[in-house]
Amino acid sequence: MKLLFLILGFQALFTSDLKEVDESFFDNSLVIVLNSPYCSDCLDIIEKSSYLWKEKLNTIVITKSVKKKKSAQVAAFELKKKLKYNEILFVESSPRNFMSNIKFRDTEISKSPAIIIRYQDKEVLLMFDDLFAKKYTPKSVAETIKLKLKELDVIE
Q1: pLDDT at 98
Q2: Cα–Cα distance between 59 and 114 in angstroms, integer?
Q3: Residue 52's CB: how many other CB atoms inside 10 A?
Q4: Is the pLDDT at 142 greater than 60, yes or no?
Q5: Domains of the chain: residue spans and CATH
């Protein structure tokens, strides 16, 4: 039944432009943007950051996919093994443009993963370079995330 929901739900989760998605979709959410390719080790570090998962934020993954149910199913299945998420939003891409960057609110995200935290009409964008500076550690990434969550009053 759950697999059937995933298969049927994918059509509604494809978009060719993120500007088409209603802004309220992102309210009280943690958005993880995954370009193609993305740093898998970095995604593991984000997934292990306990500060993100303690709060009741809706987790949305934005990634690219050619608009085919089969490739979307495979991508969603593979990501579910690596990361907890509530929704997955596929930015439609032709095979020729698959390596192009994802744009979110006029910001082009070239390296990923990147994180957007939106809470009570306030929003912060943590680009890849903000999270993964030259000498990053899992602890430094967690502290950066914690600081931004405090800025947004998600945590005290």
Answers
A1: 57
A2: 13
A3: 21
A4: yes
A5: 2-151 (3.40.30)
Structure tokens at 90: 């596929």
Residue 10: exposure state from Cβ atoms within 10 A (0-12, 13-18, ≥19)? buried
pLDDT per position as a tens digit, 48-90? 888 777 777 888 888 877 666 677 777 788 888 888 888 888 7
As a whole number of angstroms, the distance between CA 75 and CA 67 comes to 12
Structure confidence at residue 105 (pLDDT): 74
The angle subtended at Cα 44 by Cα 54 and Cα 146, nearest 5°, is 40
Backbone angles phi, psi at 37, to 5 degrees: -80, 165
Please state, in angstroms and rounded to a whole number, the distance separating the CA atoms of residues 91 and 103. Answer: 10
